[in-house]
Amino acid sequence: MDVLDLTRLQFAVVTIYHYLFVPLSISLSATTAGLQIAWMRTGQDRYRQLTLLVGKLLIVTFAVGVVTGLVQEFQFGLAWSEFARFYGDVFGPTLAIEGMLAFFLEATFLALWYFGWDRLSRGVHLATIVVVAVGTLLSAFIILAGNSFMQHPVAFELDPATGRAHLTSFRELLLNEVNLAAFPHTTAGAVMVGGALLLAIGAWRAAAGTPDRQAFITLARLGAWMTAAGGALTAVTGDHLGKVITQVQPMKMAAAEALYATTTGAPFSLFAVGPDFSIEVPRLLSILAYGSPDATVAGIDDLQAQYSAAYGPGSYIPMVPVAFWSFRLMIGAGMLAMLFAVLYLWRTRRGRQPAAWLVRGALLLPLLPSAANSLGWIFTETARQPWIAFGLSKVADGISPGLTSGEVLASLLGFAAVYGVLAVVWLRLVRHLARKPLSPPASDERAAAEPEPALSY
User: Fold this and answer.
1) Domain around 333
2) DSSP summary character for residue 450
3) 50 CB contacts (<8 Å, ≥6 apart)?
4) Which of 99, 202, 346, 351 has the least C-beta neighbours within 10 A?
């Protein structure tokens, strides 16, 4: 592997690892706020207990997400300085604002929420976690605007003297049509990941028959509803995102189907082995790409000829097998997670006890939406190749000059080792929190805090 391949691999490892925690932070913050609102409205103590549990899971996840996110942002200066130099005026504000939101807004108010129990008024205390939930959504929206610029560059102009891109409208950057389609899709995927984790914890603890079993039954069914609803929303928003991507990056959609010849009424392959065997759904790719079964989908060969004429000689074809299979595995993993959640809801309706195999399956469920999210980003980024900013500059032009393979390999191994330790720490902390009994009822806590009356004789 040359320095370019190693640098791409390093960024992929850093980004995919970081993104394991981002969807959890988004969904757990909103869930914590929702549970606290439910407690305040109903007065049922199980909602207060679940608020504390989910909030602690959020704190652990948020801490790891911030640390790994910092490394990801540093990559633009360390390994991709040429990209940062040319497009930093456009891309930089999104990173700066996202960092400020994560550190100064989300972290501050998350600390106020955690340490503010019984110290802040109920309304102010609730407001702190609502701010965290809104902050995570804003953070995601703004950072996705930066990535959307790489998919579909907008709101910039090139300085003819320096060749650098200058931001012309931050509003237009945020309202990039790719960002407006990617944000709801990303948020829906985040709901699935958080829901799957809560379903796993709730089903496991409810099956153990602990005194707080009823609260964990509530948690499991809440997680199942989140996974099922998130899956449905992911499908709807993904359909819209696919149509937008077809307009701005037709090569990506062609690579997703390995469609080499331009085809009217193009089919979609559910499974393929080589060029001679595939299971196809007629006209489905045309529907996914344009919303019409009779639409014409441009093929890889014709697009390669168009790009060569527009951008100069060279290959503009991404890694087609990676795009083809990551797209299908993403859809398959997401659908399986959604179907399992629906099955769990059906088998536990009206207070029914889930079968042992269903509980065991729930413990593995978080792997599916997490894999779907990662595969989605692998498809999004690899199928954009060879562009780092589509139609403007290639990935090979963005790496830092003078970077050596040895330097990249050493840092890659270092990051992998540190991230491995962080993964173990996170898993152990989550398991510890999941195993602990829920906090005692509020009345018991108050009784324990009150001093015993002095005896008199």
Assistant:
1) 3-242+308-438
2) S
3) 35, 215, 218, 219, 222, 438
4) 351
Q: How far apart are CA 257 and CA 267, in angstroms?
A: 9
Region label for 209, one of left (φ > 0), alpha (ψ between -120 and 50) or beta (otherwise): left
CA 30 to chain centre: 15
CB 392 within 8 A of CB 233: no
pLDDT, tens digit (0-9, with 9 covering 90-100), for 205-240: 999 877 889 999 999 999 999 999 999 999 999 999
Q: CB within 8 A of 32, min separation 6: which ones?
A: 51, 54, 55, 58, 129, 132, 133
User: What are 407's two structure tokens?
Assistant: 């330097």
DSSP structural state of residue 381? H
In 198-273, which ranges are E strands? 263-264, 268-273
Residue pair 316/251 in contact (Cβ under 8 Å)? The answer is yes
- Asked if residue 282 belongs to a domain, the reply is no
Closest CA to 153 of 241, 81, 99, 89: 89
Quickly list H helices, 81-163. Answer: 81-100, 108-115, 122-151
Non-local CB neighbours of 117 within 8 Å, separated by 6+ positions: 125
Whether 450 is covered by a domain: the verdict is no
> pLDDT tens-digit profile of 352-387?
899 999 999 999 999 999 999 999 999 999 999 999
Half-sphere exposure of 325 (CA within 13 A, CB side): 6
Cβ atoms of 214 and 356 closer than 8 Å = no
Cα–Cα distance, 101 to 88 (Å, whole number): 19
- Tokens linked to 106: 């989300």
Mean pLDDT of 328-346: 96
Strand partners, 394: 387
In one-letter notation, the amino acid at residue 427 is: L
Strands (E) in 148-259, as ranges, are 156-158, 165-167
Helix (H, G, I), strand (E, B) or coil at 266: coil
362 found inside a domain: yes
Burial 88-124 (b: 16+ CB within 10 A, else e): bbbbebbbebbbebbeebbbebbebbeebeeeeeeee
- Compute how many other C-beta atoms are within 10 angstroms of the C-beta atom of residue 219: 27
**Does residue 358 fall inside a structural domain?**
yes
